[in-house]
Amino acid sequence: MDLATVKKHLYVEHSLDDTLITHYSDAAEHAIASYTHSTYDSLNKSHEQAKLLLIGTWYSFRENEITLNITELPTGIKFLLDMEMSVVI
Q: For position 89, what pLDDT does the model report?
């Protein structure tokens, strides 16, 4: 997924946060791979949607003043990734 797609999801039209958004994108791929105990797959629509949701959450709640307890994934992301892990091949 390219930076332009992620920025469109975030409603960001400037380039001031490009480095931060790219960092969140990389971190989201790592988090998804860790959660699913597999490699991140950019062709997997559930992975892509979970990535957008993670990036959106992190981008929206990045200020130090906000206390955010993320001990588990938000419901939508958990649903997408748990569904994939239950598929038997």
A: 46
Residues near 9 by Cβ (< 8 Å), separated by ≥ 6?
52, 55, 56
Query: What is the average pLDDT across 22-47?
Result: 93
Residue linked to tokens 């960092």? 23
**Distance between CA atoms of 55 and 11, rounded to whole angstroms?**
12
Report the CATH number at residue 29.
1.10.3230
Q: Looking at the 3D structure of the chain, how many domains does it have? A: 1
Q: How far apart are CA 54 and CA 60, in angstroms?
A: 10
Query: Is the pTM above the cut of 0.85?
Result: no
Q: Which domain holds residue 61?
A: 3-85
